[in-house]
Structures are given as C-alpha cells and as structure tokens.
Design a protein that fits this description.
This protein is α/β, with parallel strands linked by helices.
C-alpha cells in the first residue's frame, strides 16, 4: 500500500474550521463568517485589544468590522472592562428588574429625543421583529413596506424580496418562510421615489409601517437621500402608517443621536415613529432596544395588547457594558475625532485606488464607512450588484494576507473605532496601495 502523502494542516484556523464543520452547520454560527462569498478559511479569533485582533495562528490584524459595529471604543476599553467585571461579581442574570436597566433606558432616551419610552431586548433581530409587531398592533394593519438591500434581522416577514411588480406578492428569500407571511410585505427599491409614491397610492390604507435603514449597511454603505427620506416621512404621516428607523447599525455609530439626528438637521421637525437600536448600545454584549412615543409604546404588554417578552432582556452584565460605552462616546469631541479618523481612512483608500486606476468610490459618516469597486456611488441594491465581485475578492484576500481585516462580503459596511491610530490608518492605506497595484497589473 502506498503511504498517504497528505499531511495534517498546520494552520490552526483550518484545523478549527474542520472541527467546527462537523458539529455546526457550515462551521459557523452566523453565515457570513464562513467566507463563502470570498473563499478561503475563516479566521478564528483568539483575542483582541484596541483596534487589533489575533487569530488562532497568532497573526495580528487591524480590525475594521469591530464585531460588525459595536466596538466603537475598540476592544478591551478599560472603563468598559471595569464596568463589566464589577457587574459580573454582582450576578450574571436575575430575571427581575435592575437599576441599570432604568439607567440605560434613561441614557438612551436622553440621546434620542424621538423616543419617550424604550424596551430593552437581546438582539437586533428581536428588536426589529418586536417593532413590526408593535406597529401592526398599534395601527390594526397587516402590510409592511421595506426596501431591497436593507437587512432588519431574520424574522420571517423581513426575509422577503420584491415580486414582479408592486401589486404582486413579495417572495420569501429563505426556505421556511410561508408565502402567507411574505404576502404582507411590500419590497421597494431604495431611493426610488416613484415606487414609493405608487406603493402608498395602492396600499396606503393597509400599511402598518415603513421600515428603513437610513444608511443601508448591508449594501455596504448606501445613504437614503434627503428628498427620499422627506417623502417617506410625509407619506407615512398622510396615510397613518408608522415610520420605523432601523438604527441597529447606525445608532450611536454615525452620530451621537444616530442617523435620525443627521436627517433632522436637513428636514425640519423630522423624527421617526419607532426606532430600533442595537450593537453600540450593548458595547459588544447581546443587547438591543426599540422605542418611540409614549402612546405607541404603551401598546406593549403589560400595559397593552401587544405581547413581547425576553428572559435575558436587560441583562445586568450587558447593561453595564452598554452604560459604560455610552458614557465614553458622550464625551465632548468624541465623534469629531472618530469622524476625522474615518475620513482619513477613506481618503487614503481613494487616493491609493486612483493612483493605479482602479474604479473606486467611497463614503462615510461618523465611524461607519463603505466602498465600491465602481466609479460612482450606487443609490440602490441593483446598482450595488454591479460592483466588481471578483475584484473585491482579490482586494479582500490581499488585505487579509497583509494583516488588514475587512468584512468578508462585498455588501457589508466597515467600522472605525476610537482605538484606530494614525499609524493603523497609514498601515492600512499602504497595504491597500500594494493590493491596488497588484489588481492594476
């Protein structure tokens, strides 16, 4: 018998991935982590500090996903670590109210004036799902309007793509979602005023809510135009529908008051009816929230008929982490410095791409950024889909191999933290320049 020449991999990431695939579907607990879109082996994180993490091989990376947004202070911020350690000593979970739940709710409401009351939950999906149920309960209507390319979690009614026309039913984008659920969801093109007008003309009296990411971070980074957002607000008001702002990604990330504070500067009197929050408010712990005016929020149990509950909602360790994070980002000058750091990164990347003639467009707000291998910024999902996916895979692996970690998918935004230094930014741009040179050659 000829002896096998196959040798066990010495790559610890590969070893862990092989083990994981035997017992976890796809080897991961959230699909994008599997690197299916870009190929290769996922990096299994061993530890993180500041703007960096180290994988199972001990390789260091500059981290631009920051746990997909929550780590706005960077990993292991001393004030946050101290707050969490003190909370852990008091108890992990009680299933009963705590003072910190009240404190965190007060802190959130102080920063987001569109909300009079807020309910804490454990994930963005849970918050968005609950906001939809609340909107339906408060209005007595079934239909919801969402936009192609916006992600609001994996609740059934939100995993829906557009039908062949506005008058046709939406189509489930996942097995296991009944058509009977999908038929109550109307999916429109982002930033398309004509479709928006048509939808409200056809279904205005049926619409419980319109849910939107004001900056769509699951199309990489696509901003709703001011005229489009203005009309969303006007049509919801005119037809008695609720405007739901999904700020799981943008909340406390693009500005201290979230994306809605940016639109409020451009649209007099602007405010959403319900806001969905997550990521930053938990500082990296499982925590999310939804809130709105008192009259709407009092429809929730135990005051009203709309049921929502959660065993770990308002978890005492998570609320400690969130409170410490909000305290740090509320300090004077925090967002000015974070925004400047992010602008420095995207300007450097743009200049590096231009140097080698690589089509490239980019935009940012606060500590959130996105880029496309396109000459102009797209305004909707169909335009995003025209981006050079093969080129992105080359860019992704070129950065990864040189110690820079961006999202392993063409359609995901990136995040800069307060821990990213000028040296980190300069190193990233230098690495990108080398990859762009490779792509041009």
């Amino acid at each position: 018998m000829t002896p096998s020449t196959d040798k066990p991999s010495t790559d610890r990431n590969q070893q862990l991935f092989d083990r994981a695939r035997q017992i976890i579907p796809g080897g991961v607990n959230s699909p994008v982590r599997a690197f299916r879109a870009v190929g290769g082996t996922p990096r299994f994180v061993q530890r993180a500090q500041g703007a960096h993490f180290w994988d199972a091989n001990g390789q260091r990376y500059i981290d631009y996903i920051g746990s997909w947004g929550p780590m706005i202070l960077g990993h292991g911020h001393p004030a946050v670590v101290d707050a969490v350690q003190r909370a852990v000593l008091e108890g992990f979970s009680f299933g009963a109210p705590t003072e910190r739940e009240v404190q965190l709710a007060e802190a959130i409401l102080a920063l987001v004036p569109s909300m009079d009351m807020v309910r804490l939950v454990s994930s963005g999906t849970e918050a968005a799902m609950s906001a939809i149920r609340l909107a339906r309960g408060a209005t007595g209507r079934k239909r919801i309007v969402k936009f192609e390319g916006c992600y609001h979690g994996h609740a059934d009614s939100l995993l829906v793509k557009a039908g062949s026309g506005l008058a046709t039913f939406g189509n489930p984008t996942s097995a296991g979602v009944p058509p009977e659920v999908a038929q109550h969801t109307t999916v429109l093109e982002y930033n398309n005023l004509a479709q928006l007008e048509e939808a409200f003309s056809l279904f205005g009296a049926e619409i419980a809510c319109l849910i939107i990411e004001p900056i769509a971070g699951n199309m990489n980074f696509v901003r709703a135009s001011v005229p489009f957002m203005t009309r969303c607000r006007q049509l919801c008001t005119q037809h008695g529908a609720l405007l739901v702002f999904d700020e799981v990604m943008t909340g406390f990330r693009v500005a201290l008051g979230g994306a809605q504070s940016i639109y409020a500067k451009a649209i007099p009197g602007f405010r959403p009816d319900i806001t969905v929050l997550g990521k930053v408010i938990g500082g990296g712990m499982p925590l999310a929230a939804f809130g709105g005016p008192r009259a709407v929020m009092e429809q929730l149990a135990p005051l009203g008929p709309v049921y929502q509950a959660g065993t770990l909602s308002g978890n005492p360790v998570a609320t400690a982490c969130g409170l410490a994070t909000l305290a740090e980002i509320s300090k004077p000058g925090f967002f000015d410095a974070l925004s400047a750091r992010t602008r420095s990164l995207v300007a450097g990347l743009s200049a590096a791409a231009a140097e080698y003639g690589v089509p490239f467009s980019t935009e940012c707000e606060g500590g959130m950024f996105g880029f496309f291998l396109l000459p102009e910024l797209p305004q909707n999902y169909q335009a995003v889909m025209k981006s050079d996916s093969a080129g992105f895979n080359i860019l992704f692996h070129g950065l990864l191999d040189r110690g820079v970690y961006i999202a392993p998918a063409l359609y995901e935004a990136g995040f800069v933290s307060a821990a990213h230094s000028e040296q980190d930014i300069a190193e990233t741009v230098a690495v990108a320049r080398a990859v762009f040179r490779q792509m041009a050659g």
